Amino acid sequence: MSAVEPVGRVSDVARHRVPAQAGPAEPPGAAPAVVSLRGAGVRIGGRELWSGVDLDVGAGEFTAVLGPNGVGKSTLVKVLLGLVPSAVGEVRVLGQAPGRAGPRVGYLPQRRSFDASLRIRGIDIVRLGMDGDRWGVPLPVPTRFSARRRAEYDRIAQVIELVGATAYANRPIGECSGGEQQRLLIAQALVRRPELLLLDEPLDSLDLSHQGAVAALIGRICRQERVSVVMVAHDVNPILPWLDRVVYIAEGGAVAGRPEEVITTQTLSRLYGAPVEVLRTSDGRLVVVGQPEAPALHADRHVS
Amino acid sequence: MSAFSHPFFLHALLAGTGIAFAAGLVGYFLVLRAQVFTGDALSHVAFTGALAGLALGYDLRLGLFAATLAFAILMGLVGKRGRADDVAIGSVFSWILGLGAFFLTLYATHGAADGTAGVGVLFGSIFGLSAGQAWLAAAVAVGIGLAVLAVTRPLLFASVDEAVAAARRVPVRILGIVFLVLAGACAAEATQAVGSLLLLGLLAAPAGTAQRLTDRPYRALALSAGLAVTEMWAGLALSYAAPQLPPSFSILAVATAAYAVTLGVVRNRPRTRLRPVQAW
Amino acid sequence: MNWAEANAGWSWNPAADIQQIWAFPFMVNAFRAGTVVAVLAAVIGWYMVLRKQSFAGHTLSVISFPGAACATLLGVSAGLGYFAFCVGGALVIAAIPRSGQGGRSQESALTGTVQAFLLACGFLFVALYKGFLGGVNALLFGSFLGITTTQVITLAVVAALALGILALIGRPLLFASIDGDVAAARRVPVRALSVVFLVLLGAATAEASQITGTLLVFALLVMPAAAAQQITARPALSLVAAVLIAVLVTWCALVTAYYSPYPIGFYVTTFAFGVYALARTGRALAAIRPDVSEEPANTPVGHAPLGGTP
């Protein structure tokens, strides 16, 4: 890994704003960046995970955080949440210090699944995303007496509809499949209309068909709702069609830029320190071939 | 002659209602957070605390609350990060229980009281409560219940979805400690009613039943408390009607029966959909 | 208290003291029974810790209390009650299908309820059998008085039987405990072994209950094994160490209990816990001394950012 050099040190590439790949989304232009990192670095327990990361994410952009296991991809998300302080550099989220943006940031942590016997409905999980940080118990006020309660219920129903989970939102979440749970959790992250969605390996532990469907859902939300998405991913393929921006983290350094620039045979080979080939299929999609899969796929979850 | 004309029964009813209410609320979260083993631990500690209090010449309740609260805070501080394995926890508990046996003997040999104090602590003596004890127990129990209700929503969030709750600035760790303290206080309370060995049933059975019956969290919480109170009343009535049955046995028998019935009924309920075989 | 007047106190001359203690037939029986129980409990407990079934062991030990109380109520020997309930309980536990993944919260609620209910049943039996209250403490916290030679023989026969069976199935059981899937693929009857082991565990619990008392069985089952597995990672060596620790703890507890008014269960737990704490501290110290960077993955550093303190 030590052979990998921070390729192109990003700055020039990253600051070159790219309009959303498809669709009518306007180029963000002068709009303030939703996420902005300047020379940011993180140190945990004296060990430097990565440093020198420059990144700008505009409104409604889909950014993937990629890289080998254990380099601190999840830590990047925690830095953006303000749960882990950055050791150097500047980090701004929605124009503020990390952790200050409150409900304007939605978060989907890395996880396996809920306990199979957890007797709580999916809709309750979504509702906790709405009001879970308020004290006390919700009083059993009928909705017609409380406009706020009604608005909350409407929003919950709407967001569940959005992720296509209406059919199983009333089932105990433990009985839902991994893909269904993931949709409900995305709904939970979305319920307070965040401007930025931080997703930590949401496709992990899903099978292939679900991976495609959930990736499509996230891509659709990003485009339609104009929510910026920063997503940690193990495999870039399922999300390639929606990607505006890619951050590759390797030992110590990082590369950021448009997928066409970063996901190239040359860059990735240098980054991984192993021969990697990037092919372009006839429909314009990028296919990464020979991407070295780290053998310890599961151990990774404990470390990163 | 009505049961309600006996002061001992009224006292038991008063204290029992409050204690069951608190135990139902706390138990729901114990089960939800999969901390029943912690409840088990607290019951051991409650025994040792009560007997240490007696042996050292203080009120039994002083020892009870001091031990369970101290232990709860300790557990909370050690916390999840340094989560000890079952073997370590079990080793510590059985040693604490052994200490309880030590205090029991110390009390029996040096104290002036009879040798049944240990049995009283282990298995409860709710019919032996005085008016003052009953009122105090009920008041403390109501306080515990209200405190649980005050933190219910964030605690639910933190229990179900810790990472997201932490990201949303819910004080997950402090809530965990607060909850353990409440559970400790509740264990001390329940020891007075059903005894330290049996309080686990009072915490776990109504909560388990409620979670079987409904999957709406707030409804389950209310149901758990309601079930606990009902089972307490039924148990007390049963013991009054059949005096050879000790009240703690009756209470637990009713609670266990309710749980068993629920398990049978809910299992027969047609599932809307079978879970996929995959190990999600 | 019949021995209290007879003994002259600890004389700091071990040989004389042991001689004095063994002058009483009941103490000889207590040592015999204690040794038998310690050996069996240590061996079975070693497998139990390895198989992470300490919760099952805990449940079985709880069952032994209603067993003994029921036997007393029915007027049969307490030993019969112990064995009947513990082995029966083991079979019931074996019959419950293991849900494998998930199901923890519901399952633990169920286990907690069942445990409390069984203890309550024991209490009911005690209450129905009036005048038995003093004996409750002995049932719960152990007693070494009044162990008859017949009892010792029963204990020894059961222990020999259990150890014999374990010797037969020991190796496949070890394989199945460590790596169930591979063992199953190699045609080891994993399920049957688990049932047999639970029955053995029930027998060991029933035996240990008679010395340490129901509530403190865990001490004799878990702590020697846990301490031994802290000391060494080699299976055979740690098994031997567990037996040695258990026997030593039991002997020390018997001697101390002989000279003091406190129940033997207290001494067994305290000594066993002391050994366990020593083993853990020793290992922690040994782990600090070598190169710290040796195993960074095991240090909690990697976990630290996960949600703890916001």
TrEMBL record, chain B:
**Source organism, top-level taxon:** Bacteria
Keyword annotations = Membrane, Transmembrane, Transmembrane helix, Transport
Question: Transmembrane ranges?
Answer: 12-31, 51-75, 87-109, 121-151, 172-190, 196-213, 220-242, 248-266
Where does the UniProt annotation locate this protein? Cell membrane; Membrane
| Membrane topology, from the record | Multi-pass membrane protein
Grouped into one coarse class, the protein's main location is membrane
Q: Pfam families recorded for this chain?
A: ABC-3
Q: Which InterPro entries match?
A: ABC_BtuC-like (IPR037294), ABC_TroCD (IPR001626)
Q: Write out the similarity annotation.
A: Belongs to the ABC-3 integral membrane protein family.
- Official protein name in the record: Zinc ABC transporter permease
Q: Which organism is it from?
A: Streptomyces violascens
TrEMBL record, chain C:
Q: How does it sit in the membrane?
A: Multi-pass membrane protein
Q: Pfam families this protein is in?
A: ABC-3
Would the keyword Methyltransferase be found if you checked this record's keyword annotation? no
What are the subcellular locations of this protein? Cell membrane; Membrane
Q: Which InterPro entries match?
A: ABC_BtuC-like, ABC_TroCD
Keywords in alphabetical order, please: Membrane, Transmembrane, Transmembrane helix, Transport
The membrane spanning regions, by residue number, are 30-48, 80-97, 109-132, 152-176, 188-205, 211-229, 236-258, 264-279
Primary location group: membrane
What does the sequence similarity comment in the record state about its family? Answer: Belongs to the ABC-3 integral membrane protein family.
PANTHER family, A to Z: ABC-TRANSPORTER METAL-BINDING PROTEIN, METAL TRANSPORT SYSTEM MEMBRANE PROTEIN TM_0125-RELATED
Tell me the protein's name. ABC transporter permease
Q: Which lineage?
A: Bacteria, Bacillati, Actinomycetota, Actinomycetes, Kitasatosporales
